[in-house]
Protein 1
Amino acid sequence: MKRIYVNEKWCLGCHLCEYECAFAATGLSDMAKALKGKRIAPKIRVEDCGDIHFAVNCRHCKDALCVKSCISGALSKGEDGVVRIDRDKCVGCLTCVLVCPYGAIMPAPDGHAAQKCQLCTDNTCGVPNCVAHCPNNAIVFEER
Amino acid sequence: MDMYIQPEYEVVRREDRCIACRVCERQCANLVHSFDPETGKMQADDSKCVNCHRCVCLCPTHALKIVKSDDTYRQNANWDGQTINEVYKQANAGGVLLSSMGNPKPFPVFWDKMLVNASQVTNPPIDPLREPMETQLYLGKRTVKIERDERGRIKNTLPPQLKLSAPIMFSAMSYGSISYNAHEALARAAEELGIYYNTGEGGLHKDFYKYGKNTIVQVASGRFGVFKDYLETAAAIEIKMGQGAKPGIGGHLPGAKISADVSETRMIPEGVDAISPAPHHDIYSIEDLRQLVYSLKEATEYKKPVIVKIAAVHNVAAIASGIARSGADIIAIDGYRGGTGAAPTRIRDNVGIPVELALAEVDARLREEGIRDEVSIVVGGSVRSSADVVKAIALGADACYIGTAALLALGCHLCRTCHEGKCNWGIATQRPDLVKRLNPDIGYKRLVNLVTAWNHEIQEMMGGMGINSVEALRGNRLMLRGIGLTDTELRILGIKYAGESL
Amino acid sequence: MLLKEGQFRNPSGCAVTGVIDRSGKSMSGEGMIEAISVMHDRSNGLGGGFAGYGIYPHYKDFYAFHLFYDGNTARADTEKFLTRHFEIVYSSEIQTRKIPSVKDEPLIFRYFLAPLPQKLANSHLDEREYVARCVNRVNAGIEGAYVFSCGKDMGIFKGVGYPEDIGRFYRLEEYEGYAWTCHGRYPTNTPGWWGGAHPFGLLDFSVVHNGEISSYDANRRYIEMFGYKCTLQTDTEVITYIIDYLVRKQGLSLEETAHVIAASFWRTIREKEEETREQETLLRRMFPSLLVTGPFSIILGFTGGLMALNDRLKLRSVVCAEKGDKCYIASEESAIRRIEPDLDRVFSPAGGEPVIFKLYDQQGGRA
């Protein structure tokens, strides 16, 4: 399946992907209107350490620990390979947050459920918005 | 900062659009932008801004623009703001002013004063979408005496030539003045396009030997990075006698740009200014040049063409005539608008002549002397578009070198501060965090796109003229007409005025 | 005042035709007049001309000079020059016939010449080069004199008017030759100068051309490096010089010359078998500035044959035909049919593909 991959060599640590991710989730057409004055809660996070930068988001693991550990059946792996979360089923136990080895699942800003990258299949972007707007092709969406 | 000098540009931020994502702050190597946690707002220090537009391009909400400051000195047609500031700078620092890229002064651009012909009625235009339209050519000597083998076939007695798929090459830009990634992008693009890039006088990084067949290596007055493998790897060797941006002086690479890698490639100490001598100290006259040409040919077994690059100066035609008789295969002429990574401002802005006039003079002189076939002519020094290429070829050039246009394709915004080594676009810098901003995967593709697009446009214009090979355009000055030119300029360019018929 | 040919560039459309009897049998110029008259509409009365080969059998070892003179001063100056450089074997005014539509004719003279041996030896030149340079000196240096034909055993006859009228003016029915070419001109300007009509000749080469080449200035500026002066500023002139340079000075064959002038496209060359590919690539790399682009169809006349050649895109028509020993070339098939309705073979050569018809006796001798 096509996944999002991040190439550390080209990641500049500009954090644009985080804003593009948050923007994609709003469904709005103007980023200033969507994000002005808001704290963003992106599903992709850039980790910085000195000159090293690396954007992290869900790997959509083949044998996903989060899916296995979910006590309410909210997390599932679709036929397309995408690991999705059903907010209505999620009870907010955050077990998935604990077991994810990549730190790619996090509590949603409302605190009632977890959130994760669903490759922009849950919005109208078409291709993952972080990929579309990475200025240095550090984030790619491809089959490997 | 000098208290006398006020910021040239102001950063204008639309508060209603800024979401304080801090991308501008992270991307500015000049440290213009900062985040004020107390107000939660971004702020800017205009005095540090060089107007490179990196922040403007990356701002996701288009909240930024850079404007020319309207702060002004008392109006004075003689002493403009720039001139006054330069006096202040020198009074403060006591040094030679440094600048980068090409001459920005408002001198006439002769490309823009020439118009191209098109065919109709008596001669059909040719449609490049439907008919072959050839931009392939060979560079090098064409002087031959026909010799035949025992079966009567013509023997290949031609000296080595360079085959180009389009009349465009990337001009000399050294590793050191530009980054590893910029070099990689140029090398890969040249390979994919079937053209050549030029190492400049910075040597050839060991990783790029694999692009040798599309590489022209330079031998300049500093001889940086020149050794056997370097010469042997290349497709052609260029002797740099002069550079359009700074005729009369050698290259200058600030120590800050001499990283470990650059130092190894150039074979010079790390962190120390690399200043090439003004002349080649083994070339004080034309007969010395001939010796270097033949030394290089001897060293490479006469398998590679030798290019001699000169700056366009007042007696360029006589110099070119000498070079054409020196054994060189190609003359590269660099006009006074040519770019540079660092040059003394006064030289960049006041020395040399336009390449259009130099080319016209050189081509005419070589033909008068009957030695045009001894050399191909390549011109650079501000070839800005495919139209400039077409006009250059019609004036008599075989091909063009593009430097600035190639850098623009890689993201350069012509802020002209290459010499500071903090290029926000990852081009004219050796700082690893900045270098990585230029991903050669993107860069090479953009260069390929640029040259491909120009090539299409060249074909369109050639087709319009009813010419289906770039060879039949070369020196075809009847295809040009001047506009807004004096009689002297027309005479030098060897063209008629617009409206004068055939 | 109207400018003379050469003082401006004058592109023109045209009709061309040619015929050769490969067995060397002679025919009069009448056939050519017939053929060209069919293509009347391709000319506009501003130029017509003929070249005949094998027409001076009694003087075949001498250079036949045809000259236009504006007046007797030019003639006297020229004859003085000719006497200094040549032995004049025979000279006379060319016999013409009054035709109402042919006006303002200059004085037209013919000389049979042999270079003075001592002069020739002192010049250190090949005989043909010596003759060519003398022609240049008359044309460039003597006001009002113009040599328009200077080959051996061949002659050019041309003037301002429709070609069929020019043919009758020169009484071409009285000349007999093994090959003829003819040209009717449609210039887009009105020079009214006889020297500007075609064929254009240099030694025994004569060229008739229909087209307007787009490479003109590239070709001109290149060929002028080798001592040629394109004083007439016509396509035909530059093409003739190119052929002369490649064939006479560089020693290329006519086929090789065609592969320079109307070179195959690189992509076509790539697909050819190895030996041809190598040779054609070499020719293009050696003489790139002699590639001629834009529409043209030319007929080259030379001692012993004719060559037809189209530009590489075939932007001008040219048709070839054979009937027994005779071969025909014309802009339009109708011109050929007019003089030989029953043909063995009619074909249209591809762009850039030379068609060469030679006497069976390659030396150009008569059967």
Protein 2
Amino acid sequence: MRSLGPVLVVVAAIVALWYAACVPMNIHTAVTDAERAGVAVSPDGAAVRRDIGALRLALGNTHVWGDTFAQEKPRLPAPHQVAAELWDTVAMKKVSSKRSLVYHGWITLSATLVGFAIGTVAGVLLAVGIVHSRAMDMSVMPWAIASQTIPILAIAPMIIVVLNSVGVQGLVPKAIISAYLSFFPVVVGMVKGLRSPSPMDLDLMRTWSASRGQTFRKLRLPASVPYLFASLKIGIAASLVGAIVGELPTGAVRGLGARLLTGSYYGQTIQIWSALFATAILAAGLVALISALERATLARMGVGR
Amino acid sequence: MSLFLVLFALLLWALAWWVNVRIANGPAAGTRAARLGVPAIFGLTLLVMWELVVRGLGVPLVILPPPSLIAERFAGSLPILWADFMQTVVKGALSGYAIGCLAAFGTAILVDRSDFLRRGLMPVGSFVAALPIVGTAPILVMWYGFDWQSKAAVVVVMVFFPMLVNITAGLQETSAMQRDQMKTWAASYWQGFWKLRLPAAMPFIFNGLKISSTLALIGAIVAEFFGSPIVGMGFRISTSVGQLALDMVWAEIAVAAIAGSAFYGVVAFIERKVTFWHPSQRG
């Protein structure tokens, strides 16, 4: 809580900077609009103004600054415009409406969650196999680690289109992308976790003549939980990115990624920014949810911090 | 004939797996050759199985081309792949990576000098680092145009926050005792910084650099889905997918994989040279 004050100051500074940036970013169109409306502006004629820097133009036309915060398609929308659009599309529209961000958010979220669940289960199973089979460990693990260094997200458009051509579309292709993006972090983290018990702990299990299954259930599995949660947090964020990128290539009409794409086609900047904030809120919510689960689980296990 | 190929693939799989089990549980398991050989056998088997199954079942080219065809396409379109590589990786990803990391470094020093900024900026930074920043791509493409500048901008934004968090955490790494020691030697802030705290931060900085190397490529490729000139890996992937030229897509993915692991490998190599003193590098 000691950092609440500084955090608020930093956030306030960011918002202030954002407002300040709106002026030079939007000044060109603002001045043109003002000129059309009959207001006197300092250099007349759009052609002359094109070569003038945004800052100089802004300083020369302080009376149109107000307009830079209230345009319909600004280059940089002001924070309150984005907030108003978010409020309008989240709270004021019916949930089933195509213009509701809740509707689009749910499309993306459902694909994310399905994919995340598949990826996590598969990742944990593979990790269990890797820990118990030396051959599997030596064959698969280097590839799992190497896969972290390559941009596997690039496969996303192909998966969407190929599955589309065999008749699978909608949630499943996006979920597959989400699944493979969350799969590898979970494998790597879970293997690390299942191996985290020290040789001393393992020896102790041995002196109690514990079977492999007992050692697994009573020692390895509990020891892996903190590692699992750390990778789940990475995995869910990756899943969300996967679902969003999965919505781009087909020119999808539904989902947060589709909102970003249509917004960029039609220059609807406010729509892009509100979709962007919706994804940010969604991501933050998902990570916070997993953090809360982590805290509750670790506290019940008695290893909470 | 076709079923025979599939059966042969399964047989090959069983054989290769048996070999791997023998090596992994045999006396040579710990050697360098085994550690490289086992994953190599596994990967090669997968490739050959892919080839055999695709040919055996007659999978259409627009669903999954066999690796031999992809290799042929790769070898046949080297100039295109090279141009795409230069556009996306060298111009987009690398320049953005350099700018983003340097900016994060500068900010981290500012943050480091002020406790107030650290307490304020760090939670915000870690929060932003967890967000899907790729989503800023349409905005930045709108601002900086279709060419590589907008891709570099996306990479800068993606790389900045993870780097900032890692560098700042690294600069906190020295103990109070070590800093006191520098004080007793009347070291200035910058002397303490260059001789004690920066070297101590290096493992963290390289951790950030490695995470960011992957992020940089992802950012540069995905940003091209929102608009690009008619060259670049993301552009080629999205247009080839549209033309159902999947062999080209796979060739481009191979380039991405090679570029990604080479990038990561270079960073890891420099790390080994710089942090040779760290326990994780000595083993």
